[in-house]
Amino acid sequence: MAKSYHQYCPIACALDLVGERWSLLVVRELLEHGELRYSDLNASLDGCGTNILASRLKQLEQGGVVRRRRLPPPASATVYELTEYGQGLRPVMHQLAHWGARVMGPPRAEDLEPGWLVGALQMAFPPTATGACVEFRIGAEVASIADGEARAGGTDGPDAVVIGDAAGFYRLFVDRDIDAVSVEGSADALGALLAVLPPAAPPVAIAPADQLSAA
Asked: Roughly how many angstroms between the first and final C-alpha of the chain, as a whole number?
């Protein structure tokens, strides 16, 4: 049985549902990819043991965050998906992603997997963020914001095209440093897109890893 804070507090109650290790990462995967089989989740959550994953899915299902559904033939597979209540975590995850991005630092090549860009855009922007149509060409990755949604690949007639590397992409979204990338087309369209993001967090001093682990 999952641990509980046993407090009449909305934050404590929320953590009772999704505060266990791996729970929010399960939510992240379902937000990004939609319905997934258990094997898909197991493959994407490297380091999460099968017993832990099964336990987290059970807790999330009991809490009304996730549901199981049997696909009709010929698939006949069981998939997991977020409930309407679970989908309500999207703006929470959006804010948490921006808050956490400040401490990550620019990515290294080994930190990124193929297809990372569209996932980053999905997490960066709330749904239907703006009417601006912007294409991003970051290293070998191409993704777009069009009709308020993040999509893999390019888009027809973008208002602006953003070109750069992963480090520049990080500085654009964390520091709002437009000079970290090249912009073809309307800089105002990119500015309108950035304007819907949460305010840029100030720089933060992080204690050395050995101090954190010893706490």
From this structure: 27
Query: Is 211 part of a structural domain of the chain?
Result: no
Q: Which domain holds residue 120?
A: 106-195
Unique residue bearing structure tokens 């060409």:
137
- Under the phi-then-psi rule, with left for phi > 0, alpha for psi from -120 to 50, and beta for the rest, what region is 128? left
Q: Answer yes or no: do 115 and 188 share one domain.
A: yes
pLDDT, tens digit (0-9, with 9 covering 90-100), for 67-116: 999 998 887 899 999 999 999 999 999 899 988 888 888 898 888 999 99
Alpha-carbon distance 212 to 215, whole Å?
5
Check residue 134 and give its pLDDT. Answer: 95
Inter-residue contact 143 to 202 (CB < 8 Å): no
Q: What pLDDT is attached to residue 108?
A: 86
